[in-house]
């Protein structure tokens, strides 16, 4: 199951011919922190030391851009646990497709986006069609805002997964702000998302959530090996209000290492 679903995200991105890419960035991440893994369990505030390994990719091509990540988490509470989760977003730029300048105010471009979210043990699957606004923000390498539907395609409890849910919507903003201090390079990047409330198959309300995951990265590769934009270390702060739609709020700092290739 993990291989098939994760592979589907990779194939969807890989449909763009490599030679057609205007730019491409792929990263491997490692994160370590104390996270609340069981917000619906008997001890929802209990934390577990959690290792997260991530494959992340972003690329631009003739008609738009693509982004996906796959997380593989490893932790222990009452027993050893492992699970995975992935998201992919495929944006078609109306400016690139039409060959026209569609900028207005702070908006540089407008795109039509299709998103897919998928989970392992939870067997969650969501579709997120909507629009992407590329914003012109001073100092930002990029600053994008997504406004999408949040359409449920879960197998449900009868299928051995998380409960089916009614549909909702999502607002997500992602950014990167590179900056330097002396001869040292840093970047402040991450995203902030809001997903609206919905109802599960038992009639229970799933709360709206806010998830913020800003990262502060230091370009260690430039300092140690004179290879800039290759090896980064830093921290990620995770703030998750109503984690997974529960009543639990998480505030956690995780160590971060990134290899870019």
UniProtKB/TrEMBL annotation:
One of its GO terms (cellular component) is cell outer membrane. It comes from the Bacteria. PROSITE patterns: PROKAR_LIPOPROTEIN. The keyword Magnesium does not apply. Transmembrane segments: none annotated. InterPro entries: Channel_Tsx-like_sf. The keyword Signal applies. Keywords: Signal. Coiled coil: none annotated. Residues 1-20 form the signal peptide. This is Nucleoside-binding protein. It comes from Oceanimonas pelagia.
């Amino acid at each position: 199951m993990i291989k098939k679903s994760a592979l589907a995200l990779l194939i969807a991105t890989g449909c763009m011919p490599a030679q057609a890419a205007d730019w491409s960035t792929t990263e491997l991440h490692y994160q370590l922190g104390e996270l609340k893994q069981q917000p619906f369990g008997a001890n929802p505030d209990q934390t577990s030391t959690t290792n997260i390994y991530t494959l992340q990719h972003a690329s631009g091509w003739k008609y738009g851009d693509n982004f996906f990540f796959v997380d593989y988490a490893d932790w222990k509470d009452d027993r050893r646990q492992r699970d995975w989760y992935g998201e992919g977003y495929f944006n078609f730029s109306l400016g690139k497709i039409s060959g026209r300048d569609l900028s207005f105010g702070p908006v540089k471009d407008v795109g039509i986006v299709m998103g897919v979210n998928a989970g392992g043990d939870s067997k969650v699957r969501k579709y997120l069609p909507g629009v992407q606004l590329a914003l012109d923000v001073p100092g930002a390498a990029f600053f994008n805002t997504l406004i999408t539907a949040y359409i449920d395609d879960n197998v449900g409890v009868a299928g051995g997964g998380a409960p089916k849910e009614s549909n909702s919507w999502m607002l997500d903003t992602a950014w990167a702000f590179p900056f330097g201090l002396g001869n040292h390079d840093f970047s402040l990047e991450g995203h902030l998302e809001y997903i609206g409330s919905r109802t599960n198959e038992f009639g229970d309300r799933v709360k709206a959530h806010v998830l913020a995951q800003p990262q502060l990265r230091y370009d260690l590769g430039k300092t140690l090996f004179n290879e800039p934009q290759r090896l980064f270390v830093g921290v990620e702060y995770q703030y998750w209000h109503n984690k997974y739609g529960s009543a639990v709020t998480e505030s956690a700092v995780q160590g971060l290492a990134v290899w870019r290739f």
